[in-house]
Prior knowledge:
By secondary structure, the protein is an alpha+beta fold. The protein has two domains: 7-49, YefM-like fold, CATH 3.40.1620; 54-96. It has helices at residues 16-20, 22-31, 51-75, 82-95, and strands at 11-14, 36-40, 43-48. It has a three-stranded mixed sheet with strand order 1-2-3. The chain is elongated. The mean pLDDT is 89.
Amino acid sequence: xxxxxxxxxxxxxxxxxxxxxxxxxxxxxxxxxxxxxxxxxxxxxxxxxxxxxxxxxxxxxxxxxxxxxxxxxxxxxxxxxxxxxxxxxxxxxxxx
Length: 96
């Protein structure tokens, strides 16, 4: 999921689309980074996406969570200077 990409309108497909032509449905999933909403009897049922899109989305969420923690630490004044960070990194490298 590229950071400058604007999400498109959510694609909605009935569950029969998967059963009728899995290969075509799979190709649709791989053509978009956006989740596809699957309905069953007219009701929202599942969200489906390609494995690659899922991995990119998960990495993006993990990064956002880490940035939120860093922002909170900075707001609380809980941060280290450059030398302290480099010292900790050197110690970790030596012991791993």
